[in-house]
Amino acid sequence: MLRNSSKQFGWVSIAIHWLMAAAIIGMFGLGVWMVDLDYYDPWYHRSLWIHQSIGMLLIFLLAFRLVWRLTNPVPEIMGLWWEKLVAIWVHRGHYLLMAAVMITGYLITTAYGRGVDIFGWFEFPALLPADKGRETTLGFWHMLLAWGFMGYIGMHAGAALKHHFIDKDITLLRMLGMNKKNRGDEK
Length: 187
Prior knowledge:
CATH class: Mainly Alpha
Structural class: mainly alpha
Strand order of the largest sheet: 1-2
Oligomer: single chain
Helix content: 55-70%
Largest sheet: 2 strands, antiparallel
Order of helices and strands: HHHEEHHH
Low-confidence stretches: 182-187
Number of domains: 1
């Protein structure tokens, strides 16, 4: 099933979720590694170009993800009323943090008024005029938001594991494209 239902995530939502999770965690690792590179290191410019290119692709994917989420039903949230309320706000926080990290990255990249070259395929233009001071200020916020987002991802993963191992519900299985029936432990 491609689209979501009230009971299950569709394959598009599942694929976007895991692709973005892997890419964002990988981008964080790349970002942490590249800030310690010396200007003369052969990877100094290459890693930055890769980081910027993937970041822009993630912005496009996030936009698609938001449209997809708004045009698809969201499977029912499991748990007590307060857990459902927390889940709603945590998901909204995820989208907000993702957007903030990606937008600050874009604004850092375009601080000199140049667009972003995306893997040599095309260039996404700078939407704001050059402002060299923006690079330093937003660099700090980009880093802070990225570290905060990693903490948020850790809590999200912990909650998914809690649902799976303690509550024994199908919250995690739904995002893996499974349910108890096709996993073989029907109750």
